[in-house]
Amino acid sequence: MLSDQSDILFMLDTSSSVYELDFEKMKLFLSDFIDLFKVSNYRQRISSLTFADDVKVNFYLDDHLTNDDVKVKVKLYEDREERRVGKECRSRWSQDH
Prior knowledge:
alpha+beta, elongated, 3 strands
């Protein structure tokens, strides 16, 4: 069971090894999962980062004070350039083989 006060960090893989559809599924899962918490400065604080060739902090523990704030931010995750390049490479490879 989660304590009354917790700091939670979500890490999402945005590398080219994750297909676009799977990336969207991760976002939906995370958005639903956030409903299990009571986000606030005094309860559960949530942070998120994405990683591929580099790491990007999407938001810090004290950036969003409600569940809805966090869920809005998750919906705004961008499809990263590395993912588009990887998708194009896989597509070209499959056409050649």
